[in-house]
Amino acid sequence: QQQVKQSPQSLIVQKGGISIINCAYENTAFDYFPWYQQFPGKGPALLIAIRPDVSEKKEGRFTISFNKSAKQFSLHIMDSQPGDSATYFCAPVKWMDSSYKLIFGSGTRLLVRP
Amino acid sequence: GAGVSQTPSNKVTEKGKYVELRCDPISGHTALYWYRQSLGQGPEFLIYFQGTGAADDSGLPNDRFFAVRPEGSVSTLKIQRTERGDSAVYLCASSLRSASNSYNEQFFGPGTRLTVL
């Protein structure tokens, strides 16, 4: 049962462009909606996160837009840079079986061309 | 300060062998998680420790997998009779204690890449 669907699978953007990654979820019991960034050989690192009572959050070049009724949230990277090239995961969080669990999407591999 | 560390960074073993993977969490973090990340996929939850006890082991795929955290700090993930399908990156994460109404960020280590030949 796939609870989180992430798209696109891969994305190529020119330097300075906007990167948009989408995440759709099936369970309404999520408590927190983070995006993680992962570089090769490294573990995922929290990039930005939003709570379900907020529709948008911006931190520098990174923005999360959250649509609760559509059960979707997206990551926008403005002025994309080659250093942003990485794999991005949405990982909504829910309390289940005595712990908070991150339910990771399948990832989006972003390549920003110089 | 030091982040989550994992050793070894790479482990190659033969089918049927036993392996141990180690995780050193961030100092002061009482919650510790193990995840498994297969190639081209997102991490999947395996087990969660709060202190010394395994509070949630619902993600362990079968009884060949076991994890311990005897002193509430370092944790070891143990895999018996390894199979080729166990090949993946095993990630450890730690956080401050979380409760049902209070989520604390999980910080991930770099992972151990396990290859079963």
Number of helices, counting only DSSP H or I runs of 4 residues or more of chain A: 0
Largest sheet of chain A: 5 strands, antiparallel
Report how far the terminal alpha carbons of chain B are from each other.
37 Å
Could you spell the SSE succession of chain B in H and E letters? EEEEEEEEEEE
Instruction: Look at the structure and give the mean pLDDT of chain A.
Output: 93
Rg over CA atoms of chain B: 14 Å
Largest sheet of chain B: 7 strands, mixed
Q: What is the count of helical runs of chain B?
A: 0
Report low-confidence residues of chain A grouped into runs of 5 or more: none
- SS-based structural class of chain A? mainly beta
Oligomer: heterodimer
Query: For the CA atoms, what is the radius of gyration of chain A?
Result: 14 Å
Sequence stretches where pLDDT stays below 50 over 5 or more residues of chain B? none
Helix coverage percent of chain B: under 10%
The pair of chains with the biggest contact is: A-B, 24 and 27 residues
State the helicity of chain A in percent bands: under 10%
